[in-house]
Design brief:
Elements: H1 2-26, H2 30-45, H3 49-54, H4 57-64, H5 72-91, H6 95-115, H7 125-135, H8 142-154, H9 158-171, H10 175-190, H11 194-199, H12 204-215
Length: 217
């Protein structure tokens, strides 16, 4: 009971902070917005600005989760606030810093989504899609591309997941790894009902056609 009350208070405080940040953004008060974002990030994660900038997203998840299994609420809050900080960097013309945080934010978002378990704070898919738009303006590391594939699969956008798979194959990286990922992807799809595949814009006949295409690589 105490733990649930603690989480609900944290969510309430986060919601208030986020509303303040969005309000300052709308009012074009960028300096105040930056101060509130920085304070919120520290208050909710206990991590310094330098840690956010330099640590890997996996290390950030571990630290915020207390080196235990992923804490979906804390990680979601961190991802959301990192995205807001990236927005500040973008408005200031600091493109590299913005990209760095957008990338980490997206990766953390997806790790939360892939947990596929109910939480007191559910992911905002619109915000995640906005973050995807930001990061795809730049070349993406394989790990992030793989997370994009998983994200689209998890959200039943199978056609988009497949597009990423063939993008990775066309990039000419570690083909063996990508092919293994692709085979596993189609094995999962073949276990789904035809109507579910159709709803995900990748009907069964296209799945079978793509499997044949994959064998040609």
């Amino acid at each position: 009971m105490f733990q649930k009350d603690y989480i609900m208070r944290m969510i309430e405080q986060f919601t208030t902070a986020l509303a303040t940040i969005i309000g300052l953004k709308s009012a074009d008060k960028i300096e105040e917005q930056q101060l509130v974002v920085n304070k919120a990030l520290y208050d909710f994660t206990g991590l310094s600005e330098a840690a956010m900038e330099t640590l890997s997203y996996k290390d950030l998840i571990s630290l915020v989760s207390g080196f235990k299994e992923i804490n979906p609420v804390k990680c979601y809050i961190m991802a959301e606030l990192m995205k807001e900080k990236a927005d500040v960097y973008e408005r200031l013309g600091e493109t590299d810093q913005a990209y760095n945080l957008y990338l980490k934010s997206f990766n953390i978002y997806v790790e939360v989504v892939l947990l596929n378990k109910s939480s007191e704070l559910e992911p905002n898919y619109k915000t995640i899609d906005q973050t995807i738009h930001k990061i795809t303006q730049f070349p993406l590391p394989y790990e992030t591309q793989k997370l994009r594939l998983y994200y689209y699969e998890q959200t039943m956008k199978y056609d988009k997941a497949e597009d990423i798979l063939f993008e990775l194959l066309a990039e000419g990286g570690d083909k063996k790894t990508v092919l293994a990922e692709g085979n596993a992807f189609y094995e999962r799809l073949l276990k789904k009902k035809p109507e579910e595949l159709k709803k995900g814009n990748l009907p069964i006949d296209e799945v079978l056609e793509s499997i044949q295409k994959l064998q040609g690589f």
